[in-house]
C-alpha cells in the first residue's frame, strides 16, 4: 500500500444536498459523511490540496439540475474559498473538466478519492485517474452507493454494489484503503 505523499490531493466527489433525496433509494455506509469530514479536516489542517467535485446534470428532473438546492454542497462539506471546485456533467470528474490540468500544473501525482456514488461517479473518476497515471487511493469507508436493479430486475443491496465496485477499482486502477488507515499514513 502506498504512503500518503505531502501534496496528495483529496478529491471529494458529488457531496451535494441532492444525495439525500429519497428517490435515490436506500444506501449503505451511513458513516460516510463523518469519514469524509475526518479526511477533510485532516487535509485542511495540514494545508494539503482539496478539490470538490460538483455534478450539474443535463437531465431534466434530476436532483442535480441547475438552480435546484440539490446542486448545493452539503453544509458540513462545503468548500472553503481557497479550495478548488470542479463542475462536471458526466460521472467522470476528469472528462472535459480541466481537473487533470489543475493537478498536473501543481505537480500533484497522488489522489485520495472519497464521495458518491461508489459505482458511478467515484468508480468512473478512479478509472480515469488510474488510466492517466495518477497514484490513486479510494477511501472505501468515505464512499457510499444505493440499492440498484440489474438488467433482469433483480435488486442488489447497496452493500454488495459498493463491495463489487471497490473490487473493480482495486483490480487495475487504485489502492483501496479505510479512512483510519489513510489518516494513520498521514503521520
From TrEMBL:
What is one Pfam family matched by this protein?
Isochorismatase
Top-level class of the enzyme under EC nomenclature: hydrolase
What Gene3D superfamilies would the database entry show?
Isochorismatase-like (3.40.50.850)
Q: Which domain of life is it from?
A: Bacteria
Q: Which residues form the Isochorismatase-like domain?
A: 8-179
Q: What InterPro entries does the record point to? A: Isochorismatase-like_dom, Isochorismatase-like_hydrls, Isochorismatase-like_sf
EC no. given is 3.-.-.-
Protein name according to UniProt: Cysteine hydrolase family protein
Segment forming the signal sequence: none
**Family matches, as SUPFAM superfamilies:** Isochorismatase-like hydrolases (SSF52499)
Q: Name one GO molecular function term.
A: hydrolase activity
Q: Which UniProt keywords apply?
A: Hydrolase
Amino acid at each position: 500500500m502506498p504512503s500518503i505523499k505531502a501534496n496528495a490531493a483529496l478529491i471529494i466527489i458529488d457531496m451535494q444536498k441532492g444525495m439525500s433525496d429519497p428517490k435515490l433509494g436506500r444506501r449503505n455506509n451511513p458513516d460516510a459523511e463523518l469519514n469524509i469530514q475526518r479526511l477533510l479536516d485532516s487535509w485542511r489542517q495540514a494545508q494539503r490540496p482539496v478539490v470538490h467535485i460538483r455534478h450539474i446534470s443535463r437531465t431534466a428532473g434530476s436532483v442535480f439540475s441547475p438552480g435546484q438546492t440539490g446542486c448545493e454542497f452539503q453544509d458540513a462539506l462545503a468548500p472553503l474559498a481557497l479550495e478548488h471546485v470542479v463542475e462536471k456533467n458526466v460521472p467522470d470528474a476528469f472528462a472535459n473538466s480541466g481537473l487533470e490540468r489543475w493537478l498536473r500544473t501543481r505537480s500533484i501525482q497522488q489522489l485520495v478519492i472519497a464521495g458518491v456514488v461508489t459505482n458511478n461517479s467515484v468508480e468512473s473518476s478512479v478509472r480515469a485517474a488510474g488510466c492517466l497515471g495518477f497514484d490513486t487511493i479510494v477511501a472505501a469507508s468515505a464512499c457510499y452507493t444505493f440499492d440498484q436493479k440489474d438488467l433482469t430486475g433483480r435488486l442488489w443491496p447497496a452493500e454488495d454494489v459498493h463491495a463489487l465496485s471497490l473490487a473493480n477499482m482495486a483490480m487495475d486502477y487504485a489502492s483501496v484503503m479505510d479512512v483510519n488507515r489513510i489518516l494513520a499514513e498521514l503521520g
